[in-house]
Amino acid sequence: MSLGRYRNVNRIEDGERPRYYETTDFPTQLELQEIATFKIRVSRFDRLDQLAFKHLGAGEYWWVIALVNDLDWLYDFEPGQILKIPISVEDVLRLV
Prior knowledge:
single chain; alpha+beta; two-stranded antiparallel ribbon; 3 helices
């Protein structure tokens, strides 16, 4: 089971309205020297959720790859670009 972005935020329920989560601002810069990573070259067919599934064990960790690489969203990279993949998701979660 993966740890999501919402693990430490409050869930808000408002009567008849659907429940939602408080927003959390992640740091824009991580102390990358504290995170062990390896590098991959992405193709035009890659997506962050697929890369997260392949390398981190769960597609829900796409945001971890985005955070480590300072990407804004799921498709914010170019074919041939080098991305850093954290070896341990827990190392990233410890810093956010």
